[in-house]
Amino acid sequence: MTERIIGSSILILCILVIRRLSRGRIRPAVLYSLWSLVILRLVLPFENIPSVFSVMNPVRNAAVQAPDSLKPLIHNLATGITYRTSDPNPSLAVKAAAYDWQLVILILWVAGSLLTAAWMIYTNRRFAQRLLAERRRYVGCPCKLHIYLADSLPSPCLFSWKGETAIYLTEEMAADPRMLRHILAHELCHYRHLDHVWAVVRNGLLAFYWFHPLLWVAASASKQDAEMACDEAAIRMLGEENRTDYGRTLISLVSPRPTPLTLTSISTTMASGRHTIRERIRLIAKKPRTLLPAALLMFLLVTAAVGCTFTSASDNSKPSAADSVTEGQTEQLQTETSSQAGRPLLLEDVLELSKRGDSLTFADFEGYDGGEDIGSGLYIRVYPVEYGRYTLAVGGGDLKEKPMYIRLQAADADSYTDIRDADLSEYIVKYPPDGSGNDRDSELRRKEEEDALIASQQVTFSEEEIEDARKAALRYFEEEAPERELEELWYDNDSCIRQRVSYLLYGRGAVNGVSPDDVIIFLCDFTIPKENIMEGEYTDFNLILIRDGKDGEWRLDDQGY
After folding, report:
1. CA 474 distance to own-chain centroid
2. What is the chain's Cα-based Rg?
3. What is the pLDDT of residues 361-376, one digit of tens each?
4. pLDDT band per the 50, 70, 90 thresholds, residue 501
5. Alpha carbons 269 and 223: distance in angstroms, whole number
6. Which ranges in 193-321 belong to alpha helices (H)?
7. Could you read off the pLDDT of 244-295 as tens digits, one per residue?
8. Chain Cα centroid distance, residue 285
9. Is 48 helix (H, G, I), strand (E, B) or coil?
10. Which burial class, exposed, middle or buried, applies to 464 when counting CB atoms under 10 A from its CB (0-12, 13-18, 19+)?
11. Domain segments of the chain: what residues?
């Protein structure tokens, strides 16, 4: 959607410039046909055609090179993925990235589209009802279409309603044979150009892209060009000898009264405002012809505009592999390929990587199968885990910097977890590698394994060991998590046994080989102030501490619910 908005905006501006430069040098019908390119750009998907000339290249580069403080918000707007941070004083952009702005924008967009469409339907239906109520069939002139008289009309028009396309004019206009002939020629040209159909298409696009200001400008300009193209075609139909009389007819149709037919009307009107009529009369008097130099220049400009706006950002616009190597690394990041050959990424690898926490970089995932970049303006690399049981998405704005997120998601889950967070083990327990998270029999088997492990554990910590672990937990709050206002910290033996089993079977303990004797779990309640993006009250929060043998010091290894 973003590429369509940006591409169509540049295309509209190009056509407006071409239209301005070519007026009087190119036939109006040719200029009118250029607006079909805007319709194609808005309707058809051209996002998968990369080009070094695409207008999206500087957009992608701007997103990648944006200040670090803005990247979380940019990524949030591009993907809809919210961003969390433990920073006690996050920037305004980071705070904003905690909300799903794509959902907010979607709601506003749908509401605006429905309101715009409802307004269009209402105004055109009201016009049709008034027209049908007062119309009278006119049979004084043979015509391919039905002709109706309606005295309240400010302008003759071609109007299609419920399958009937007809020409409407006033009795005064029908009484003048010369004017009647000119009006019928003009409206028949509208019919041949399918302008009554394009009016519906135009309204549909305006309703869908109601927030696109340049599209409203394009709709107004295309409607003017439609009238000028019909002027040209009508004079050709009537004969050159009628050019002057046709111009006089247009002048006589200028009405000082405001017309009720707006930009969103599906009727085609022959009359226009004074400014537009003046331009139409000037073109009628000038008799514009398509000159070869002007045609060649227009062709080149249109080709360049299409090449820049109908394509997406080229892969070459990404930072090169050499530029993406962080200091001290000896491996080059392979940014030119969409997938990389390597060994499969297994869950044990993910658990091992998770130990590095916030120090993880894009380079840590090199050498594994996958790594397909699905980002648009930012980098989002996806790796299959456990042969497709899970998916690991690594996303960020710059390959030189730490990823914004590293998210693990099970194939049968709607939720995900960042492997740097404390709830990784809990997530794996909920969605185990065998895919049995929702299978009753497997759940029972897993429960039996847990019960057996609980029964086999005869771990009893001394008061001194518990006190040493408590001091280590307090040091964590004081030194590493000062933003957390600790309210209570306690040890519960039954809870410790249950959570220790989960930790040893499915969490970090499953890969680090720690002994049950060296794992102790505390419960705590704490609060994070409102100024922090992680604000809230946390109760019964687990702190998992481990040590290296009886003589080792306790240290925090995992945390969460």
Report:
1. 45
2. 35
3. 888 888 787 665 544 4
4. confident
5. 9
6. 195-208, 213-238, 243-252, 274-286, 292-309
7. 999 898 888 876 544 545 688 888 887 777 777 888 888 888 776 767 888 8
8. 48
9. coil
10. exposed
11. 2-8+30-62+98-308, 335-421, 452-560
